Amino acid sequence: MISNRNRLALEVCAGLSVAPAIWIINTQLGRILVYLDCQHRTAYSAIASFAGAVANCVVAAVSWRAAQRVFLSEPPPTELSFVGSLSALSALLFAFALLMQGAASLVLSGCQR
Amino acid sequence: MGFLTTVDHKIIARRYIITSFVFLALGGVLALLMRLQLAQPEARVLSPDRYNQIFTMHGANMMFLFAVPVMEAMGVYLVPLMVGTRNIAFPRLNAFSYWIFLAGGALLWIAFALDMAPDVGWFAYVPLSGPQYGAGKRADIWAQMITFTEIAALAVAVEIVVTVLKQRAPGMSLDRIPLFVWSMLVTSFVVIMAMPAIVFLSTSLILDRLVGTHFFNPAEGGDVLLWQHLFWFFGHPEVYIIFLPAVGMVSSIVETFARRPVFGYLAMVMALIATGMLAFGLWVHHMFATGLPRLSESFFTASSMAIAIPAGIQVFCWLATLWDGAPLFRTPLLFVIGFIVTFVIGGLTGVMAASVPFDTQVHDTYFVVAHFHYVLIGGAVFPLLGGIYYWFPKITGRMMSETLGKWAFWLIFVGFNLTFFPMHILGLAGMPRRIYTYQPDMPWYGLNMFVSISSLVLVAGFFVFFVDAIRSVRAGVSAAENPWDAPTLEWATASPPPSYNFAQIPVVNGLNPLWDQPACLMVASGLRTDRRELIVSTVAAANPQVPGGLTGKFDLAILGCSRDHRDADRVDLHAVGGRLGIRSSCSRIDRLVLAQGNARG
Q1: Which of B41, B89, B136, B425 is deepest in the core (most CB within 10 A)?
Q2: Three-class SS of residue B84?
Q3: CB–CB of A89 and B266 under 8 A?
C-alpha cells in the first residue's frame, strides 16, 4: 500500500514524469501507427495524440491539486508546492505538444512520403 | 606535481575555460580560411581535400571542444559557489574529465597538423565515414575524439547533478535555487541522457571500421539511417546542452543589472525543464530529407514548434524583468541584449526550418548555416561573453575594461549580423553547404565577398575581447567584494575565492540571499575549518540529512574533506559524524572567509 505521504509526492511529481512519458510514447507511436493508418485508412495516430493530450490535462490537474493541498498544510513545505506547480505547468505544455501532433495527424494521411 | 594533480574545482574550471577559448580561437582561424576560400569564385586558396578537413574541424572543434566544455566549465566554477559548498562532488573525477578532454582536443589538432584530420563533416554520416568510403585514419580520429570529449562531458554532468542535489547550503530549497544552477542541473541531465547515444555511435563506427562489424552496412543487415537517428538523438539535445547554461547566465545577468529578481521564477524553471525534455523529441527535424513518412515527420514538427513556447516564456520574462527594473547598461547586459535580438531571429528561422516543406527546400543550404550560427553564437556565445565580463572579477579579482568591453560588444554584434544574415539570402538563392568553390556565373559572388569582408569585423571584436581579458588579468582595476551588487552566493566570498570557497557555510532563507540579508548573512556553525567538510543536504528542502529542523544542533554527514585548506589537492572521502548549528548572530561571510584566509597565511 502507498502511504498518504508517498501518494502526495507521486501526485506532485506526476506532471514532471507521467506527462513527458505520454508525450514521448506518442511521438514513438507516430512512427509506428502511421503504417497502420496508411494500410487500413484509420486515424489511430490522431486518436492516440488527442487521448494523450486529455491524459496530460488530467495529470496537470492532479499535480495542481496536490500542490494546493501541500500549500494549505501546516507548516507548508514550499518546495513541494513549488514542484507541484512546476509539474502542472509542464504537463500543460506537453498537452499542447500532443494537441499539435493530433492536429498534424488530421491534416496528413499516413501514406504521404 | 601539485599543478597536475589539483582537484580544486575552480582551478580545473579555469583550465577548461582557457583551453576552450584557445580552441575557439583556433576554430575561428579555420572559419577565416573558409571565408578566404569562398570570397570569390573558383578560388584556389585551399585544396578541396583541405577544405573538407577544415569545415569538419571547424564544426567538431566548435561543438565538442569549445561550446560544450566551456559551458560545463562555467558550471564547474560557479555551481559549488552558488550553492554554498566547499568543493564539487567527485573532485578527482572532475580532474580526470579535464585531462581526457584535453587528450581529445590534442588528438584532433595533432591529426590536423599531420594532414590526417577528419573530412567527413562534424556529424560523420555513414557510409561516407564507414570502411567503404572513409579510407585512412581520418574517421577513426573523429570517433576517438568524440569518445574522449563525451566521456569528459558525462563525468562533469554527474558531478554537477550530485553537487546540486546533495550539497546545497542549508535552506536552499528547490524554490530558492539560482536560475543558473537550475540551468546547469537540467543541462547535466540532458548530457547524461544524450551522450551515451554518441558514445555508442563512435564505438560502433570504430568497430565497423577496425573490427569488421556491420552496424551500418545494409548488405549485412545493418542500417545506414540508424546512424542519423542516433546521431541526432544526441545532436539535437546537444544544442540545448549549449543553450541552457547560456539561459542561466542571462538570467543571472538580467537580475543583477535590472536591480530586481527575475520576473516569473516558476515559469522560468518550468521552461528550463520542459526545454530539456522536449529536446529529446525533435531529432527527426534534422532528417526531413531522408524519406520518412510525412505524418511521422509532422510529429517532430509539432514538438519543434512546441519548444518555442518555453523559449518565448523565457524571453518575455527577461523583458519583463528589464521593463520593471532599473537596468544598468554595463557590458554584460549589452551582450544579453545582443543575445535576445540574435536568438529571436535564430528562433524564428528555426520555426521556419521546422516546417517540412520549407526545410526540404533549404536543406543543406547556407540558410541552415545562417540559422544555426544565429542560434549557437547568438544563443550561447553572446551570453557566454556577457558571463565572462560578469564573473571575471569573481574569477580573477580584477575588472575588465568597460570601454574595451563596449567596443568588443559592438564589433561582435555588428560583425556577426553582417556576416551571417546574408547567408540566409545565399541559402534561399540555392548556395549549398560544404562546397569548396563555385562557378563565376552563379549569383553568389557579391554576397560571399561581403560576408568574407564582414567576418573581419567579427574577428576584430573577438580580438578586442581577448586583448581586454589578457590585459585585465594582469593590469585590470581591482574588483570590490561584490562589484555588481549581485544577489547570489558566489559573491559572498572573496574574489578570487579561497581554495575552500567558504570558511563558514552560508544559510539561505530566500531566493536572493545577498539582497534578502544585505547587512549580514547567516552561517552554519559546527563545521571544521581545518578540513574541507561539506554539508550533505536533502534533495528538496536542502536540510542537512538528520532528524530535526534547522534550529538546534544535529549530526552532519561529511562527503569529503581536505587535510589543509591551502592544499586543495588532497580530498579524501569520509562519512564521519559532526555537529552543526546556525549562528545566532549575523556575520558578514566574506569577512569571515577573509579572516580565515589571513589567519592561515
Answers
A1: B89
A2: coil
A3: yes
pLDDT value of residue B527: 79
* SS3 of residue B282 by DSSP: coil
Contact A50/B at CB under 8 A: no
Q: How far apart are the first and last CA of chain A?
A: 50
With beta carbons under 8 A apart, name residues in chain B contacting A12. Answer: none
User: Residue B156 corresponds to which cell in the numbers above?
Assistant: 562533469
Average pLDDT over residues B470-477: 96
Exposure b/e, B329-366, CB count within 10 A at least 16 = b: ebbbbbbbbbbbebbebbbebbeebbbbeebeebbebb
Instruction: Quote the pLDDT of residue B285.
Output: 92
CB contact under 8 A, B295 and A34: yes
Residue B295 is nearest to which of A78, A90, A112, comparing CB atoms? Answer: A112
- A103 in contact with B, Cβ within 8 Å: yes
Give the ipTM.
0.94
DSSP class per residue in B138-207:
HHHHHHHHHHHHHHHHHHHHHHHHHHHHH-PPTT--GGGS-HHHHHHHHHHHHHHHHHHHHHHHHHHHHI
What's the pLDDT tens digit per position in B82-118? Answer: 999 999 999 999 999 999 999 999 999 999 999 999 9
**Residues in chain A within 8 Å Cβ distance of B299:** 26-27, 30-31, 45, 101, 104
Predicted TM-score (pTM) of the model is: 0.91
With cut-offs at 50, 70 and 90, classify the pLDDT of residue B568: very low
B39-82 tens-digit pLDDT? 999 999 999 999 999 999 999 999 999 999 999 999 999 999 99
In B, minimum Cα distance to A21 occurs at: B277
Locate the domains of chain A by residue range. 4-107
Beta-carbon separation of A90 and B295 below 8 A:
no
Buried b (16+ CB within 10 A) or exposed e, B509-544: bebbbbbebeeebbbbbbbeeebbbbbbbbebbbbb
B444 - beta bridge partners? none
What digits encode the pLDDT tens for the residues B342-357?
999 999 999 999 999 9
What does pLDDT average to over chain B?
90
Stated as kind and residue range, the H or E segment containing B350 is: helix B331-353
Asked if residue B82 lies in contact with residue B489, where contact means CB atoms within 8 angstroms, the answer is: yes
How buried is B213 (Cβ within 10 angstroms: 0-12 exposed, 13-18 middle, 19+ buried)?
middle
Name the residue among B270, B278, B541 with its Cβ closest to that of A97.
Answer: B278
Banded model confidence at residue B550, pLDDT cuts 50, 70, 90: very low
| Cβ neighbours, 10 Å, residue B113 | 9
Q: Is A34 on the interface with B (CB under 8 A)?
A: yes
Write the residue in A86, A89, A108 that is nearest to B294 by C-beta.
A108
From chain A, the residues in CB contact with B302 under 8 A are 97, 100-101, 103-104
